[in-house]
Amino acid sequence: DSLLQEMCSMRIIIMMVLIHHSLGDDFEEANYGVKYASDCEVCKVVATEFQARLGESATTHGVIETGYSHTKDKKKTKYVKSELRLIETMDGICDRILKYNIHKERKDSTRFAKGQSETFSTLEGLVAKGVKVDIGIPHELWDKPSAEVTQLKTQCETMLEKHEEDIEEWYFEMQDKYSFEEYICRKKALKKGDTKCLTEKIQKLKKKSKKAKGETGTKDEL
Question: Which of 17, 36, 70, 182 could form an S-S bond across to 178 if both were Cys, CB 3.0 to 4.6 Å?
C-alpha cells in the first residue's frame, strides 16, 4: 500500500509540474501578478539600451593599435569602429536593465521603463503624509528590481548570447544602413514572431488648460 501511495503522490507532483509548465506565464500572472517580458519586449529594451550605450561612447576620440609584429606596423583602428567598443557595450547592457521598473498602469510594452511608476509614486506620497500603506512588500524593497525586471535581465543575457554573430554583423557591416532594432529585432530575433510592441510608445497625458474666470475665448500666445 505504501508503495502505491508513493507512486500516486509522484504522479500528482509530475502532473502539477506539467500543468505549471504548460500554463507558463499565464499561470505566473494569474497567481502572482507577474507577467514576464515577451520576446518582442526583450528585444525592444535591449535595442534601446544598446543604442543608448553606443551613443555614450560615440564621441570618444581614440585609436586602438593591434598587432605584435616587430617588423610590421601595428594596425590602427578608431575606437568608435573597434571591436573593443562592441565588447564593452555588450558587457554592460543587461546590467542597465536593473534600473527599469514595472509600470503596471500601462498594459503594453511601455510597462518596462525607467523611473518610478505612477502607482508607487502615489503610494510614496501617501507614506510621506504619514499614511500606513501595506501592499505585502516591505517599504525598503519598493525600489528593488521586480521579478519581471530580474527575469528581463536574464532574458537579455540569453538574447545577446543567441544573437552574438548577428550583432557583430550589424556592428561592423550594417549599422550605417539599419538601426539595431530594425536589423536585430525585425530581421533576426523576431523574424517569424510578433513585432507589434516595437511601435508602441508611452502616451503622454494631456494637461487640461484652465481658463480664467469670465474668459470666453482664447488668446494668442506670444
Answer: 182
